[in-house]
Amino acid sequence: MKQCKSDGRRGNAFVEFALVFILLITLMVAAFEFTWVLFIRATLHHAAREAVRAAITANPPAAFQGNFDNYLKSVIKTNTLGLLSDAQLDEHVQVDYFDASCAGQSCPIAEAAPSSIVRVSILCYEVFAITSLIQPRDVATGQIRPFTVNITSSDKVEPFPGAPPTRGSVAVATACQ
Amino acid sequence: MMDIAAGIRQSQRRLARWLGEDAEAQSVVEFAVALPFLIMMCMGTFAVGMIIDRHLTVGQLVRNGGNMFARGVSFVSDQNKQFLVDAASGMGMTLNGGNAVVYLSLIERVPMTVMCGSGTCANAGLIVISQRFAVGNESLAASKFGSPANLDPQGNHFDAFGDPDARAGNVPASLNSAATGLQANEIVYVVETFHTPSTISFPGIFSPQMMYSRAFF
Q: What is the pTM of this model?
């Protein structure tokens, strides 16, 4: 009889532990996922800022002469700890130049010019959950819904020491389309 | 005798069962007591994480605005305001509204020697706001340096040297010091950002506080 009761209690404790364990693990994983998104946002903020800094000083190494937008992408790549592959850089990074003295809604210009405003954006970067325990899904389609991050930074271009850099293949984000 | 022994065993079993059930009930009660704290801790962790993210974004916004402002960008046009709105991603700021406001102020010390008309200037020797731009929801909070009213459409003060309206308040002592602070004709670009993270709210547990960040360029 005693043995029976003892076994019953142990089983009870095990069931209780299992219940609490599921809850605890869910919470822990939620904390991981949440922190992961925050980390990516902070990293992309920093990378965009660094790329803008590179854009306004406009001093690309010889390998990127005539291909300035690719240089900015490489700056983003070196500052994102491998979060963005080359293909993803092409998809998500956008570089725009604007006339700083614009009085209206928007005055984009094609090439880099002194005293223009450069805007570097990392658009529609999708953060998927690390684990499969917590995956937000679209209610209608049932598809896994990633967390979308949009980061933008801009600054005024400084006077160039020489000729303005040539942008080469223009960086346009295609991921949002 | 057998009946008594059986009776004792039965009452022992009852006692044990009663004790056992009691222990179970106790653990349920304990769990119920602990649960609100657990939930509060989870929500608190979530809220703190969101707040840290917002603080990072506010910092980025201040740095973006300050760099552009110090390089001479005018924030009169919608295009140039939009750069700050874009940098404030996730904060819910729009060109003229939303949950955040950015104040960009050009402050300078009026020299003692400069003359306004026939006499010394009313603001001689004082720190004034000679240019001010605001992006976002101005009704959220007023700039800590004051809100000059007499501005032209370009954000410049009509009479920064002579109009007491232009005087800057709450200037940090390090800038205000006549000996080691801002000298006559020296200028400082000040960026302030206020943000209310109104979406991060757990009624009764956590209510959003106004965030404030500023930078001097």
A: 0.82
